[in-house]
Amino acid sequence: MTQTLTGRADLHMHTTASDGKLTVKELLNFVTKKRKHLTAIAITDHDTLDASLWAYERKTFYPFDIIPGVEVSSRDGHVLALWVTKPIQRDMDLADTVAAVHEAGGLAVLAHPVHPFIPEHFSQGMRSLFNPQGLIEMGVDAMEVHNAGIAGTGFNWIARQLARKIGVAVTGGSDAHTSGAIGTGETQYAGYSADDLRHALIEKTTVARGTPWSITDYVGYLKHEHKRKAMISSGITNSSTPINP
After folding, report:
1. Is 49 within 8 Å of 85 (Cβ atoms)?
2. How crowded is residue 125: how many other Cβ atoms within 10 Å of its Cβ?
3. How far apart are CA 98 and CA 101, in angstroms?
4. Mind listing the pLDDT tens digit for each residue in 102-140?
5. What sign does the CA torsion over 214, 220, 223, 228 have?
6. 3-state secondary structure the chain
7. 152 in the Ramachandran plot: left (φ > 0), alpha (ψ -120 to 50) or beta?
8. CATH of 7-233, one of 3.20.20.140, 3.40.50.300, 3.30.43.10, 3.90.550.10
9. Would you say 163 and 112 are in contact if contact means Cβ atoms under 8 Å apart?
């Protein structure tokens, strides 16, 4: 029997805790008011759980489920560690990163595995495309096959072929760094709750869909990133907390 895909999750978003434009509170309020179709979200800042845990601890105040998570920088590319509440060491190889995510009780998702502008992602993705056994042996749980930030380039299509060849679950995520990009990538699943989503990922019944970022969001992201890097180069830091709700 075909399941009805009632759930809509965006599993890849960033806040000011790493390189996003919105504070965690601004992001949560935006989803509440402007992305009412989303039934679950994961805030996955780079190598920090600060904003994600801040949101997770307040999950009862919002009309959607919140999954704790982080985007871990491994030596072989980025991994979305979902359902984790303790830090995952960065700069390990991919196999050790996946093992650490599992030890923490989470699921390991390869983020934009064939990203054209991140050499370690592209090389790892292409190696895996022709030799998928390594990823199978690592126990990777899922692969992000719709990343809205690189949608339209053909690299999401390559990721889909890789996921199909390996036989893992698929996810869609916006990789949002600006408000308008939120929800441009979706993981669809039967049910509504975060538990339903986790079950669907384990059972490999998820569907990944979405659209590319708009030109406005690309420009907004590039302006924000240029300003952020200029501040870092100048030694200027945000005087507020890393979460800055």
Report:
1. yes
2. 24
3. 5
4. 999 999 999 998 876 665 555 565 566 556 788 888 899
5. negative
6. CCCCCCEEEECCECCCCCCCCCCHHHHHHHHHHHCCCCCEEEECCECCCHHHHHHHCCHHHCCCEEEEEEEEEECCEEEEEECCCCCCCCCCCHHHHHHHHHHCCCEEEECCCCCCCCHHHHHHHHHHHHCCHHHHHHCCCEEEEEECCCCCCCHHHHHHHHHHHHCCEEEEECCECCHHHCCCEEEEECCCCHHHHHHHHHHCCCEEEECCCCHHHHHHHHHHHHHHHHHHHCCCCCCCCCCCC
7. left
8. 3.20.20.140
9. no
Structure tokens at 189: 């699943």
Alpha-carbon Rg for the chain, nearest whole angstrom, is 17
- Please state the domain extents for the chain: 7-233
Give CA separation, 37 vs 6, 27, 41, 110, 230, in Å. Answer: 10, 15, 11, 25, 36
pLDDT in tens, 157-168: 989 998 998 899
Nearest alpha carbon to residue 40 among 84, 6, 74, 78: 6
Structure tokens at 228: 């952020």
